[in-house]
Amino acid sequence: MAKIALITGATSGIGAACANTFAVQGYHLILIGRRETLLAQQALHIEEQYGVKVRKIQADVRDKENINYVLETLPLEWKNVDVLVNNAGLSQGLDPIDKGNVEDWDTMIDTNVKGLLYVTKVVSSWMVSRKSGHIINIGSIAGKEVYPNGNVYCATKHAVDALNKGMRIDLLPHGIKVTAINPGMVETEFSIVRFKGDEGRAKKVYDGLEPLIAQDIADAIWYVVSRPAHVNINDMLIMPTAQATATIIKRD
Ligand code: NDP
Ligand code: 8X3
Fold first, then answer.
1. Which atom of ligand 2 is closest in space to residue 150's alpha carbon?
2. Contacts of 193 (CB under 8 A, 6+ apart)
């Protein structure tokens, strides 16, 4: 069987671009996301276009029991995951700490941190058994810096940064690679989700600059994954040329 990549949050943005990129390289795919229709369309397109096999898992990474169940009940040959892309994540709101919405905080922490852990626990155990694998954690510039009103989202991405380092240490004896990919501004559904469907406000985030696109990040991930066996890229920070830091941006 060809190599297998498991990608969380594969229904849009960076995850969807990764799915296409790995399929082009002949990987079979396990794709996780909540939106069933998008998942089905994506799987059909990839299978028809690239002739690889796609296993769809319509699931919420926050649902610990279900994530365990859907992964542990995969047929044995699908557990030979070579690459795990921990991509599912989101921001909700952009408010000062005293005005933040507690439900939004729970959603971000449960998705970006706990969901990533639930998937990683199962998949890394398979990699440990095979003494092989590569885990890609999608962090952010928000995991390197803290910006006004970013509080809880930044905290979740700082947690991803720490987990990325911790995973690399713990999985070192088993020969498993661990890499953090930390993007700056990428125009995806991210800002629409952050602003809860307000497309006008989302669009303004990218006004007057050329942001990254999802394919830029997928290309970087493929670069990292395609290095020789003795090379691991620990951490990659990728920014639009017009963005120097989380908040210093050149707009025309
Ligand atoms: P998108 O909103 O376009 O994609 C997010 C993906 O995550 C979707 O496929 C969504 O699918 C999935 N997702 C969200 N919550 C869950 C959940 N509970 N269970 C399963 N899947 C979930 O945004 P991006 O592609 O930009 O985001 C991908 C990652 O990149 C995130 O971790 C984000 O924090 C990070 N990032 C983004 C940046 C940006 O500027 N865009 C910059 C730096 C990092 P569905 O709704 O179908 O479940
Ligand atoms: C997403 C990018 O702008 O919130 O991680 O730092 S930003």
1. 4
2. 90, 91, 92
